[in-house]
Predict the structure of Dymeclin.
Amino acid sequence: LLVLLILIHYRKCISMDESIPTDSIYMSDSNTNVKDASAFHENPYCKALNNAKDIQFDRSDVEGNAQNGPVVRLSFASLFDALGTCLKDESSVLLLYSLVHGNCDFQEYVLVRTDLDTLLMPILEMLYNASRKTSNQIYMLLIILLILSQDSTFNASVHKLVLPSVPWYQERLMHQTSLGSLMVVVLIRTIKYNLSKLRDVYLHTNCLAILANMGPHAHRLSAYASQRLVSLFDMLSRKYAKLAELKNDKALKVISDQMEADIMSDDTSTELHIYTDFLRIVLEIINAILTYALPRNPEVVYAIL
Protein backbone atom coordinates (compact mmCIF):
# COMPACT_ATOMS: atom_id res chain seq x y z
CA LEU A 1 0.00 0.00 0.00
CA LEU A 2 2.82 2.42 0.85
CA VAL A 3 4.55 1.66 -2.45
CA LEU A 4 1.26 2.27 -4.29
CA LEU A 5 0.79 5.62 -2.50
CA ILE A 6 4.33 6.71 -3.43
CA LEU A 7 3.73 5.70 -7.06
CA ILE A 8 0.43 7.60 -7.40
CA HIS A 9 1.55 10.76 -5.59
CA TYR A 10 5.08 11.13 -6.99
CA ARG A 11 5.46 13.93 -9.53
CA LYS A 12 8.63 14.16 -11.62
CA CYS A 13 9.66 17.65 -12.66
CA ILE A 14 10.22 18.35 -16.36
CA SER A 15 13.67 19.77 -16.97
CA MET A 16 13.62 23.21 -18.60
CA ASP A 17 15.36 22.26 -21.82
CA GLU A 18 13.00 19.29 -22.22
CA SER A 19 9.74 20.99 -23.05
CA ILE A 20 9.49 24.48 -21.57
CA PRO A 21 10.84 27.38 -23.62
CA THR A 22 13.30 29.35 -21.47
CA ASP A 23 11.96 32.73 -22.53
CA SER A 24 8.58 31.92 -20.96
CA ILE A 25 10.08 31.41 -17.48
CA TYR A 26 10.81 34.25 -15.11
CA MET A 27 14.40 33.83 -13.94
CA SER A 28 15.14 35.55 -10.64
CA ASP A 29 18.80 34.52 -10.70
CA SER A 30 21.13 32.07 -12.40
CA ASN A 31 20.51 29.41 -9.72
CA THR A 32 16.73 29.25 -10.13
CA ASN A 33 15.42 25.86 -9.08
CA VAL A 34 13.79 23.81 -11.84
CA LYS A 35 10.80 23.25 -9.54
CA ASP A 36 10.00 26.98 -9.71
CA ALA A 37 8.73 26.31 -13.24
CA SER A 38 5.96 24.14 -11.67
CA ALA A 39 5.83 21.80 -14.65
CA PHE A 40 5.53 18.07 -14.01
CA HIS A 41 5.37 14.89 -16.04
CA GLU A 42 1.97 13.23 -16.04
CA ASN A 43 1.98 10.40 -13.52
CA PRO A 44 0.77 7.21 -15.28
CA TYR A 45 0.02 5.44 -11.95
CA CYS A 46 -2.15 8.31 -10.76
CA LYS A 47 -3.93 8.40 -14.12
CA ALA A 48 -4.54 4.64 -13.98
CA LEU A 49 -6.00 4.86 -10.46
CA ASN A 50 -8.22 7.83 -11.38
CA ASN A 51 -9.55 6.03 -14.48
CA ALA A 52 -10.04 2.65 -12.77
CA LYS A 53 -13.46 1.09 -13.40
CA ASP A 54 -15.65 -1.31 -11.47
CA ILE A 55 -15.16 -4.89 -12.64
CA GLN A 56 -18.90 -5.56 -12.30
CA PHE A 57 -19.77 -3.14 -15.11
CA ASP A 58 -20.15 -4.60 -18.57
CA ARG A 59 -17.30 -3.41 -20.80
CA SER A 60 -19.79 -1.94 -23.26
CA ASP A 61 -21.41 0.15 -20.50
CA VAL A 62 -18.17 1.99 -19.84
CA GLU A 63 -16.92 4.56 -22.35
CA GLY A 64 -14.24 2.13 -23.53
CA ASN A 65 -13.91 3.92 -26.85
CA ALA A 66 -13.08 7.19 -25.06
CA GLN A 67 -10.24 5.60 -23.10
CA ASN A 68 -6.70 5.62 -24.41
CA GLY A 69 -5.10 2.29 -23.72
CA PRO A 70 -6.24 -0.45 -21.34
CA VAL A 71 -8.36 0.43 -18.30
CA VAL A 72 -7.62 -0.92 -14.81
CA ARG A 73 -10.60 -2.89 -13.49
CA LEU A 74 -11.17 -3.41 -9.78
CA SER A 75 -13.94 -4.88 -7.67
CA PHE A 76 -15.27 -1.68 -6.05
CA ALA A 77 -17.37 -3.80 -3.64
CA SER A 78 -14.29 -5.65 -2.32
CA LEU A 79 -12.30 -2.41 -2.16
CA PHE A 80 -15.10 -0.66 -0.23
CA ASP A 81 -15.35 -3.53 2.30
CA ALA A 82 -11.57 -3.81 2.68
CA LEU A 83 -11.19 -0.07 3.30
CA GLY A 84 -13.98 -0.26 5.91
CA THR A 85 -12.00 -2.81 7.94
CA CYS A 86 -8.60 -1.07 7.59
CA LEU A 87 -9.33 2.64 8.07
CA LYS A 88 -7.61 2.83 11.46
CA ASP A 89 -4.38 2.72 9.48
CA GLU A 90 -3.24 6.12 8.19
CA SER A 91 -2.12 4.79 4.79
CA SER A 92 -5.62 3.32 4.17
CA VAL A 93 -7.15 6.73 4.88
CA LEU A 94 -4.79 8.29 2.32
CA LEU A 95 -5.78 5.66 -0.28
CA LEU A 96 -9.48 6.34 0.39
CA TYR A 97 -8.84 10.07 0.00
CA SER A 98 -6.96 9.47 -3.29
CA LEU A 99 -9.85 7.39 -4.65
CA VAL A 100 -12.69 9.66 -3.49
CA HIS A 101 -10.86 12.77 -4.68
CA GLY A 102 -9.50 11.46 -7.99
CA ASN A 103 -11.77 8.66 -9.21
CA CYS A 104 -15.31 9.87 -10.05
CA ASP A 105 -16.58 6.31 -10.59
CA PHE A 106 -15.45 5.15 -7.14
CA GLN A 107 -16.87 8.29 -5.53
CA GLU A 108 -20.24 7.62 -7.19
CA TYR A 109 -20.07 3.99 -6.07
CA VAL A 110 -19.52 5.04 -2.43
CA LEU A 111 -22.41 7.53 -2.60
CA VAL A 112 -24.94 4.92 -3.78
CA ARG A 113 -24.00 2.30 -1.17
CA THR A 114 -26.74 1.82 1.44
CA ASP A 115 -24.24 0.70 4.13
CA LEU A 116 -22.33 3.99 4.39
CA ASP A 117 -21.63 3.22 8.06
CA THR A 118 -18.98 0.69 6.84
CA LEU A 119 -16.73 3.64 5.91
CA LEU A 120 -18.13 6.40 8.11
CA MET A 121 -18.06 4.67 11.51
CA PRO A 122 -14.24 4.13 11.50
CA ILE A 123 -13.77 7.75 10.28
CA LEU A 124 -16.04 9.14 13.03
CA GLU A 125 -14.36 6.97 15.67
CA MET A 126 -10.96 8.38 14.65
CA LEU A 127 -12.32 11.94 14.81
CA TYR A 128 -13.80 11.11 18.24
CA ASN A 129 -10.24 10.20 19.33
CA ALA A 130 -8.80 13.35 17.69
CA SER A 131 -6.52 14.02 20.67
CA ARG A 132 -4.49 10.93 19.68
CA LYS A 133 -4.20 12.00 16.03
CA THR A 134 -1.96 14.54 14.30
CA SER A 135 -3.58 17.55 12.64
CA ASN A 136 -2.64 16.07 9.22
CA GLN A 137 -4.59 12.88 9.98
CA ILE A 138 -7.61 14.92 11.13
CA TYR A 139 -7.44 17.03 7.92
CA MET A 140 -7.49 13.93 5.73
CA LEU A 141 -10.56 12.50 7.50
CA LEU A 142 -12.41 15.82 7.33
CA ILE A 143 -11.63 16.34 3.63
CA ILE A 144 -13.05 12.87 2.83
CA LEU A 145 -16.26 13.80 4.70
CA LEU A 146 -16.33 17.21 3.01
CA ILE A 147 -16.09 15.67 -0.49
CA LEU A 148 -18.88 13.18 0.30
CA SER A 149 -21.12 15.80 1.96
CA GLN A 150 -21.24 17.80 -1.28
CA ASP A 151 -23.69 15.21 -2.59
CA SER A 152 -27.36 15.62 -1.58
CA THR A 153 -28.11 11.86 -1.73
CA PHE A 154 -25.27 11.21 0.73
CA ASN A 155 -26.70 13.81 3.15
CA ALA A 156 -30.17 12.29 2.86
CA SER A 157 -28.85 8.70 3.30
CA VAL A 158 -26.84 9.34 6.48
CA HIS A 159 -29.92 10.69 8.29
CA LYS A 160 -32.04 7.68 7.36
CA LEU A 161 -29.47 5.07 8.42
CA VAL A 162 -30.20 4.23 12.09
CA LEU A 163 -27.43 2.75 14.25
CA PRO A 164 -28.51 0.35 17.04
CA SER A 165 -25.62 1.54 19.26
CA VAL A 166 -22.28 3.37 19.21
CA PRO A 167 -20.01 1.40 21.58
CA TRP A 168 -16.99 3.74 21.34
CA TYR A 169 -18.90 6.92 22.31
CA GLN A 170 -18.19 7.28 26.05
CA GLU A 171 -19.94 10.49 27.16
CA ARG A 172 -23.44 9.23 26.58
CA LEU A 173 -25.34 6.08 25.61
CA MET A 174 -26.28 6.30 21.94
CA HIS A 175 -29.19 3.97 21.15
CA GLN A 176 -31.10 4.04 17.86
CA THR A 177 -29.43 7.27 16.73
CA SER A 178 -29.08 8.13 13.05
CA LEU A 179 -25.66 8.20 11.38
CA GLY A 180 -26.33 11.85 10.48
CA SER A 181 -26.97 12.79 14.14
CA LEU A 182 -23.76 10.99 15.16
CA MET A 183 -21.83 12.90 12.46
CA VAL A 184 -23.17 16.22 13.80
CA VAL A 185 -22.22 15.30 17.38
CA VAL A 186 -18.68 14.13 16.45
CA LEU A 187 -18.01 17.15 14.18
CA ILE A 188 -19.11 19.58 16.92
CA ARG A 189 -16.90 17.68 19.39
CA THR A 190 -13.97 18.07 16.94
CA ILE A 191 -14.70 21.82 16.66
CA LYS A 192 -14.66 22.21 20.46
CA TYR A 193 -11.44 20.18 20.74
CA ASN A 194 -9.86 22.33 18.02
CA LEU A 195 -10.87 25.57 19.77
CA SER A 196 -9.32 24.48 23.04
CA LYS A 197 -6.18 22.69 21.78
CA LEU A 198 -5.13 23.01 18.12
CA ARG A 199 -6.71 26.43 17.36
CA ASP A 200 -6.46 25.74 13.64
CA VAL A 201 -8.74 27.95 11.53
CA TYR A 202 -8.59 25.72 8.44
CA LEU A 203 -9.59 22.61 10.38
CA HIS A 204 -12.44 24.52 12.00
CA THR A 205 -13.74 25.83 8.66
CA ASN A 206 -13.74 22.28 7.23
CA CYS A 207 -15.89 20.97 10.11
CA LEU A 208 -18.37 23.83 9.73
CA ALA A 209 -18.47 23.38 5.94
CA ILE A 210 -19.50 19.71 6.35
CA LEU A 211 -22.25 20.72 8.81
CA ALA A 212 -23.39 23.46 6.40
CA ASN A 213 -23.63 20.90 3.56
CA MET A 214 -25.67 18.59 5.79
CA GLY A 215 -27.98 21.30 7.21
CA PRO A 216 -30.71 21.51 4.52
CA HIS A 217 -31.00 17.68 4.45
CA ALA A 218 -31.23 17.14 8.24
CA HIS A 219 -33.89 14.54 9.05
CA ARG A 220 -35.07 13.89 12.61
CA LEU A 221 -31.87 15.16 14.20
CA SER A 222 -31.61 13.65 17.70
CA ALA A 223 -32.21 15.66 20.88
CA TYR A 224 -28.52 15.32 21.80
CA ALA A 225 -27.25 16.46 18.38
CA SER A 226 -29.68 19.42 18.40
CA GLN A 227 -28.58 20.45 21.89
CA ARG A 228 -24.88 20.23 20.90
CA LEU A 229 -25.53 22.44 17.85
CA VAL A 230 -27.23 25.14 19.94
CA SER A 231 -24.54 24.90 22.64
CA LEU A 232 -21.87 25.41 19.93
CA PHE A 233 -23.58 28.66 18.91
CA ASP A 234 -23.81 29.67 22.59
CA MET A 235 -20.11 28.97 23.18
CA LEU A 236 -18.98 30.85 20.04
CA SER A 237 -21.20 33.85 20.81
CA ARG A 238 -19.83 34.10 24.39
CA LYS A 239 -16.27 33.97 23.05
CA TYR A 240 -17.17 36.61 20.45
CA ALA A 241 -18.71 38.91 23.09
CA LYS A 242 -15.61 38.50 25.29
CA LEU A 243 -13.28 39.41 22.40
CA ALA A 244 -15.43 42.40 21.40
CA GLU A 245 -15.32 43.66 24.99
CA LEU A 246 -11.54 43.12 25.14
CA LYS A 247 -11.08 45.06 21.90
CA ASN A 248 -13.13 47.98 23.23
CA ASP A 249 -11.15 47.99 26.50
CA LYS A 250 -7.86 48.06 24.59
CA ALA A 251 -9.10 50.88 22.39
CA LEU A 252 -9.97 52.95 25.48
CA LYS A 253 -6.83 52.15 27.44
CA VAL A 254 -3.84 54.34 26.70
CA ILE A 255 -0.68 52.24 26.86
CA SER A 256 2.67 53.98 27.04
CA ASP A 257 4.28 51.66 24.50
CA GLN A 258 2.14 52.42 21.40
CA MET A 259 3.83 49.69 19.32
CA GLU A 260 2.83 46.98 21.80
CA ALA A 261 -0.71 48.35 21.94
CA ASP A 262 -1.03 48.14 18.14
CA ILE A 263 0.24 44.55 18.03
CA MET A 264 -2.18 43.45 20.77
CA SER A 265 -5.02 45.27 19.05
CA ASP A 266 -4.22 43.57 15.71
CA ASP A 267 -4.24 40.11 17.35
CA THR A 268 -7.63 40.77 18.95
CA SER A 269 -9.08 42.13 15.69
CA THR A 270 -7.92 39.05 13.75
CA GLU A 271 -9.39 36.66 16.34
CA LEU A 272 -12.61 38.68 16.45
CA HIS A 273 -12.88 38.48 12.66
CA ILE A 274 -12.37 34.69 12.77
CA TYR A 275 -15.09 34.24 15.40
CA THR A 276 -17.43 36.50 13.41
CA ASP A 277 -17.03 34.11 10.44
CA PHE A 278 -17.54 31.03 12.64
CA LEU A 279 -20.72 32.48 14.16
CA ARG A 280 -22.07 33.42 10.74
CA ILE A 281 -21.57 29.85 9.44
CA VAL A 282 -23.24 28.31 12.54
CA LEU A 283 -26.20 30.69 12.08
CA GLU A 284 -26.37 29.65 8.41
CA ILE A 285 -26.43 25.96 9.45
CA ILE A 286 -29.30 26.54 11.92
CA ASN A 287 -31.08 28.73 9.35
CA ALA A 288 -30.75 26.00 6.67
CA ILE A 289 -32.33 23.42 9.02
CA LEU A 290 -35.20 25.79 9.91
CA THR A 291 -35.76 26.86 6.29
CA TYR A 292 -35.57 23.53 4.47
CA ALA A 293 -36.14 20.85 7.11
CA LEU A 294 -38.26 22.42 9.86
CA PRO A 295 -41.15 19.88 10.03
CA ARG A 296 -38.68 16.97 10.21
CA ASN A 297 -36.63 18.43 13.09
CA PRO A 298 -38.78 19.22 16.14
CA GLU A 299 -35.80 18.56 18.46
CA VAL A 300 -33.81 21.41 16.85
CA VAL A 301 -36.71 23.83 17.43
CA TYR A 302 -37.04 22.63 21.03
CA ALA A 303 -33.28 23.06 21.64
CA ILE A 304 -33.36 26.63 20.23
CA LEU A 305 -36.41 27.57 22.32
